[in-house]
Amino acid sequence: MRLPEQDIAQARELLEQAKRVLVVCHRNPDGDAIGSLLGVGLLIEQAYPEKTVTMHCVDPVPEMFHFLPGAFRVTTLPEPVPEPDGTVFIFVDCGEPKLTELHETHPQLFDGTYKSLMFDHHPKNPNFGTVNFLVPDAASTCEIVAWFALQSGWTIGSDIATCLLTGVYTDTGGLLHSNVTPDVYRTVGSLVRAGGRRQEVVNAVFRTGKLSTLQLWGRVLEKISLTEEGGAISAVTEGDFRATGADYSELTGAIDYVNAVPGMKFSLILSERDGKVKGSLRTLRDDVDVSLMAGKFSGGGHKKAAGFALPGKLKPEVRWKVVDEE
Ligand SMILES: [Mn+2]
Question: String of b and e for 93-116 (b: at least 16 CB within 10 Å)?
């Protein structure tokens, strides 16, 4: 995979003219958001040591990613935001401006007042940056950042490679999802060769589970039921979150286990939060499109992973049947 040379040249020109670079990722950041936020930040800092580079998110870095170099430097946006002259923004893994949660408080970041670069892989991204690196075929934003560095002739050190590997691993479920292409393996190869600490990422992300997370997942797994339509369905109530002490983000990943029941067409986890019921849908099948199912509830997503949110609460329903006792 190669990025257009003229876009790279234009991006480098913007960076060279800047005094400060502010990198921003989306709210509720996942591994790809944090990995690309830190990866880009550290890369730019290394390439242009005379410039001030800062990294920002409206939400804190999840504990799971605290092992990453630079994780403790991530802050909310400084107030007031530095003047446009001499400032360049870099947006990473944001499918649209509102995912930064700065679109209402800081519309000037998106209306052309500020110059910006954008790195993303969400197909519906409206290309809201001044220079856009949008690659919908990439499994993660971190890969796009890696190509940018490699094509620019920049050295990727082991710290930066570790950040970037994190995003590739989390957005591919540990290289297990169907979005893993030969290019993904090639990029992983380059990052591991650059000293990326693969095992550190795997252990922190896939082999570490807080007690509250494991107990929450226990409840999810215990409540799986199979429907006549071929769905494996489970639900978590606000009571489950309270009883386990888990927060909402700890539900991430549980759906892959619900989706593991053999022979099912799709899986669904319903979860209660702040007066809303959220649905997460997954399928392993090529002939099922869960984004269409989510669409019926005004949601959306990809063919194999989608979601929706409805106002309301969950009401448990137990079905009893009287049978003859032999
Ligand atoms: Mn991503």
Answer: bbbbbebbbbeeebeebbeeebbb
